[in-house]
UniProtKB/TrEMBL annotation:
NCBIfam families: dctP, TRAP_S1. GO terms for biological process: C4-dicarboxylate transport; transmembrane transport. Keywords: Signal, Transport. This is C4-dicarboxylate ABC transporter. Belongs to the bacterial solute-binding protein 7 family. Residues 1-21 form the signal peptide. The keyword Hydrolase does not apply. One of its GO terms (cellular component) is outer membrane-bounded periplasmic space. InterPro entries: DctP_fam, TRAP_DctP, TRAP_DctP_sf. Pfam families: DctP (PF03480).
């Protein structure tokens, strides 16, 4: 009888212990608005995972650089202060130079080419290249092609001369402005609106959805549709956190993330056109469409950047990315 009572007590305390176990918390920190591809992807992930693992995993999303700016977020992941982020691929150069391939101006013809490269063997290899730094890349997420905004019209490269442009923390992006005799200024995303508004800088490069959601179009008189580069993300976590997830939890987290990324990519596609149209309709900024010869001038002017960074990035990787422009 005593044995039965002891066994019952054990079962009861195990069940009670199981019920009371604190959920695993995943803090997802990012810098953009909620109404963007990344913002919506993060919310979708939270919804999916909390539906599938109620009480076991809790996701807290911190948008708008509430928790960390992109220059600090990878460090915060390694330290375990946050568990998930999706920084722009342009913000990884202190960890590896390989991702700089994505910053080369006029490399990709369109977002389909970007997608093909990311899914290629070389693109997938890049995702795992941060393991030695304690980071695990879980997937790519799209935003879109970048446009150039300024407080004066930019038709050809000579129009950029002497102007200050904010760039992300990437030497390739800085060089891209230096070769057209402009002055790049590396600043966090959270400071861009104020820098533009106070005219501390003259312009910046970004996607339609970032220009719209952060209201840059309200403080820039012109936006030139250059499609000169890509702004995409790596969804990243810490190697330690990922390895430490229980084996019944990790696959569910991974599946939910992949589904959220697919959703985020659909949002990226829709918002790219929608937000461009919303900016045009606002009449606060004039959108300039380049002729093919004007676009060619920008392409030619920025071409020396490829050579400058070829050794750091690797000629093979650049070639692989270029191949993605061809549809097989
Ligand atoms: C982002 O889309 O996450 C930020 C891009 C930027 O810093 O311009």
């Amino acid at each position: 009888m005593r044995k039965l009572i002891t066994t019952m007590c054990c079962i009861f305390s195990m069940v009670a212990g199981g019920l009371n176990a604190a959920p695993i918390e995943i803090k997802f920190s990012h810098v953009v608005a909620e109404n963007t591809p990344k913002g919506k992807m993060a919310i979708r992930f939270k919804k999916l995972i909390e539906q599938r693992l109620p009480g076991k995993v809790k996701v807290s999303v911190f948008p708008n650089a509430q928790l960390f700016n992109d220059d600090k977020v990878l460090e915060a992941i390694i330290l375990g202060d946050v568990q998930l982020a999706a920084p722009s691929l342009s913000k990884l150069e202190t960890y590896t130079k390989k991702f700089q391939v994505f910053d080369l101006p006029f490399l990709f013809d369109d977002m389909q080419a970007v997608e093909r490269f990311q899914q290629s063997e070389e693109g997938q290899k890049l995702l795992t290249s941060l393991e030695s730094k304690g980071l695990t890349g879980l997937g790519y997420l799209h935003n879109g092609m970048k446009q150039l905004s300024a407080n004066e019209p930019l038709y050809d490269p000579a129009d950029a001369k002497g102007k200050k442009f904010r760039v992300m923390a990437s030497d390739v992006l800085a060089a891209q402005f230096q070769v057209v005799n402009a002055n790049p200024v590396k600043k966090p995303f959270s400071e861009v609106f104020t820098l533009l508004q106070t005219k501390a800088i003259d312009g910046q490069e970004n996607t339609w959805s970032n220009i719209y959601s952060k209201k840059f179009f309200e403080v820039q008189s012109h936006i030139t549709e250059t499609d000169h580069g890509v702004l995409d993300y790596i969804v990243v976590t810490s190697k330690e956190f990922w390895a430490g997830l229980p084996s019944d939890i990790r696959p569910v987290v991974e599946k939910s993330l992949q589904e959220a990324i697919t959703f985020g990519n659909q949002v990226a596609l829709q918002k790219d056109e929608q937000d461009k149209q919303a900016i045009i309709a606002s009449k606060k900024s004039t959108v300039i469409e380049l002729t093919s010869s004007q676009r060619q001038q920008w392409k030619q002017a920025m071409a020396p950047v490829w050579k400058e960074f070829q050794d750091e990035i690797g000629a093979d990787l650049i070639e692989a990315a270029q191949k993605a422009n061809q549809i097989n």
